[in-house]
Amino acid sequence: MSPADSAPSGVIHNIGYRGYDGERLTRRGITFGLYAHSLRGIFGLGRAARSKVVPFGMVVVMLLPAVVLAVVAVVGAGLGQLDGPVVPYTRYAMILQAALAIFVAVAAPQAVSLDLRFHSLPLYLARPLERVDYVRAKLAAMTTAVFLLLAAPLLVLYLGSLAARFDAGRETLDLAQALLGALLFAAVLSGLSLVIASLTARRGFGIAAIVTVLVLSYSIVSSLQGVVAFEADDATTAGWIGLFSPMTLVDGVQVWAFGVTSSTPAGPAGDLAGPTFLVVALAFVALAYWALTRRYRKVKV
Amino acid sequence: MSLVPVISTERLTKRYPGVTALEALTIDIGDGVTGLVGANGAGKSTLIKILLGLTEPTSGGASVLGHDIHTEGLALRSRVGYMPEHDCLPGDVSATELVVHLARMSGLPTSAARERAADTLRHVGLYEERYRPIGGYSTGMKQRVKLAQALVHDPDVVFLDEPTNGLDPAGRDEMLALVRRIHTDFDISVLVTSHLLGELERICDNVVIIDGGTLLRSSSVADFTRSSAQIALEVVAEPADALAALTAVGLRVTRDGPLLLIELEGETTYDLVRDAVADHGLGLVRLQPRRHHIAEVFEEEATRVTR
Prior knowledge:
CATH architecture of the largest domain in chain B: 3-Layer(aba) Sandwich
Number of helices of chain B: 11
Strand content of chain B: 25-35%
Largest sheet of chain A: none
Radius of gyration of chain B: 23 Å
Structural class of chain A: mainly alpha
Shape of chain A: globular
Shape of chain B: globular
CATH class of the largest domain in chain B: Alpha Beta
Oligomer: heterodimer
CATH topology of the largest domain in chain B: Rossmann fold
Largest interface: A-B, 35 and 41 residues
Strand content of chain A: under 5%
Strand order of the largest sheet of chain B: 7-8-9-4-10-11
Number of strands of chain A: 0
Helix content of chain B: 25-40%
Largest sheet of chain B: 6 strands, mixed
Structural class of chain B: alpha/beta
């Protein structure tokens, strides 16, 4: 018997230091790794249990009405009362925007403020990725998270519509339009919230600031629209006011691009207004990306 | 020493508004453990940050492992590990999760990252506690996690910025032993900073002393101490008698309390001491080489520069 065979089994030996000669990912692979890690982190996965409460709470809040509406659709269709969904897909985000705002307000600081608070950025920047990769990974992760949050209830509504035997072709087209809208909602809200969150290392400040900006801008814009549209009877001006809050901005794009009804007192009116809403929305996302890269180029490590 | 120096800087200068952190610093650093010594604000951390590309130099150039800091930052950083000076660990994740994640951020595939994170945490001395959130760790444990994340991707060189900061004497000794092992056992070159010369001379092969952003001296630890080697002798007899006896055989001897310090002039010095002690019946208690600490050399250099 050789000495190796006679060694007792079940004993942990200190095998000494071993080097690593295996595969190493490139910058792109590493950036994707940071994206995946950030996406998990936004939902609290890999973090303490209390970090999961708000994200999954908001997922449930977003899904519940969709489940109820799907059931209503099936039952209503069975009774011969309904031939289409009660709530259009494109309006779902606007109706549940409170839950959406809370999710975004908690997720963005989770994605970026923690690294600032714990001064973890040097650990990333001393590794083979650039500052701009960090920004891209965080922005992409946040956009994906918000999109998933919006897309899941839309799919539930869609399945409900199919079960109710509504016109499948029409429903599929409406769903596709609403998913495109959801993507734009996600990009605009992510850009805005990440810029705000990246300015503070304090998570509480970030949450408060994001909620305030989203709620305040929507309240002011929608009440102004109401006043101008109904008191002054000027729907065109009321439509233009929608440019000034993220939610009404994206809703305006949907109204123009998909011809759906507006969720606000007035949608963009005229041939010029619609494209302007789209350009402003895209420009807003680009501006947020630029602001973030600038912020992280200067951040001290 | 290999042909390509591990670190090479060429007139590296960094100015902040009102402050010059580095002034035309030109040094070559080879493999082994190199201590970077200087007072707080001497430019140690600035040098490391410039080498990693975390900060842009005002002028001048540098390379690490042959990779230029201006043009090959990604390649450079994939082969370097960095342990920052300040607290940088998130409190709400476990050491295992953090080190696995950072291994992936260094380019390791997931399975390799898990394996190496477990290995590395064990090597730095973190066992069951590695599954608990870092927020509850002691300073010593946090320093070990910071060291583990610098080593997890098996770099060729690690930059350790004040690894003994905030540690108690026992923790300091353990950390220094660990730093030494990084080179001797892991075969990774080390650049380690400290404002305490005493602790670096115990573990370093070479020491670079910078002050006010300029190079004060760069040489091997042996060079620092060899020139000033002495033998310390302690005997039962009166030190004064022994001093007379040793001086009589031609040795240069000074008295330091109960100790006699004999200038080492070669191998024969030992024989002369032995014979003198035996002939005069001085009663040998202790005979050992006494090296000057670098600090004494450093003080001399520093006073010479300020004058």
